Amino acid sequence: MAILQPFHGLRPAEAYAASIAALPYDVYNRAEAKKIVADNPMSFLKIDRAETQFPDTTDLYAPEVYAQARDTLQEMIGSGAFIRDDSPCFYLYALTMNGRTQNGIVGCASIDDYLNNVIRKHENTREEKEADRIRHVDVTSAQTGPIFLAYRPEKQLSEIIRTIRESDSLYDFVSEDGVRHQLWKIDQPERIETIRKIFSEIEHIYIADGHHRAASAVKVGLKRRSEHPGYDGTEEFNYFLSVLFPADELCIYDYNRVVDGLNGYTFDTLLEKLEDTFLIEKTGAFRRPSCKGELALYGNNNWYSLKIHSRIFTGDPVADLDVSVLQDHVLAPLLGIRDPKTDDRIHFVGGIRGTDELVRLADTPDRIAFAMYPTSMDELLSVADAGRLMPPKSTWFEPKLRSGLLIHEIER
After folding, report:
1. What distance in Å separates the CA atoms of residue 23 and residue 403, rounded to the nearest whole number?
2. Domain segments of the chain: what residues?
3. Backbone phi, then psi, for 108, in 5-degree steps?
4. Would you say 296 and 289 are in contact if contact means Cβ atoms under 8 Å apart?
5. Are 396 and 389 in contact (CB under 8 A)?
6. Residue ranges with strand state E in 13-165
7. What's this model's pTM, rounded to 2 decimal places?
8. pLDDT (tens digit per residue) in 85-141
9. How large is the angle between the packed helices 211-227 and 127-140, nearest 10 degrees?
10. In terms of Cα–Cα distance, which of 317, 335, 160 is closest to 257?
11. CATH number of this structure's domain 255-373, picked from the four choices 1.10.3470, 3.40.390, 2.60.120, 3.30.1760
């Protein structure tokens, strides 16, 4: 049963919320992050990506970079840019994009729930990415980027959220990408206790996005436990900042693939091989995949519809994912891409960037692109419930949660 704790939120003063809120640290490369901070000195990227305050020659992972993140956070607290709520609270964070709204309860999940698999995962993590966030959380003593969690819809909680939305919000602004962000504080003791009780009766919650941030927060928590052998479990380092959304409100976009080189095939001979796995139709123009089991292929200046033969599906929750079929039947055996995490011949393109970007990237004779039908939330939950992992880059969630709107301090 899931543990969710209220916390003393550290958050922007209202006048600064829109300026401080930033996309997650790993959305940008170094040059992009540096330009954003130069254009907007209030951007939270100056804390999440503190190397933006150093010359380009500075090591991204140098100790002084993490110290700068800590110092900048403390300076912004001291200046009044950030304020701290006096009592432990939950919060409601609503994001609206293209007319669709998702409503998340912000609280702190338990590192023990993560370790005991009450919080279920669907993705592997890489140690080098964990190491960066471990140092960031440890040096700043703050969790600055929320973990994106999902739960199966719960009627009573939906009603509470509806009631909260009828009250005035703390923040209400539209970010540069057109997403509306609203935040409400939940500080009534009775409502806090009701929310805690509801989550205590939910058997499992799921990481939708943020596996590296979650793993890093847990490892810092375990480190702090070793440094405080008398800990009793109530300390803030035993919990990590999370936003929990009902699964039916979430939107997964397609996560597409561009491949360099045909591994010795001509485009025509590759098409012949693909017929073992797909029913192929030349469409000329792009035809968006409309259901599970349907992909689109761009190559040789044309678009093709690929429909997976029914005999390919086995009933296995991982093997039957469209991204798995592509990996197991095409990328590995035909194109020689056996480890998509490390092979530099494959490039992943979020569906929000559109098909024009796929054509631009693959519009040469030695490149092809695959446009996918999005993985569903039901598929994600089924894989996680089976204790299995999805192939890399199986899901692309939009809209992205903003960092800097709420911070969880693990020690003060």
Report:
1. 6
2. 4-251+398-409, 255-373
3. -115, 120
4. yes
5. no
6. 82-84, 90-97, 100-110, 119-120, 142-143, 147-151
7. 0.93
8. 999 999 999 999 999 999 999 999 999 999 999 999 998 887 888 899 999 999 999
9. 50
10. 335
11. 3.30.1760
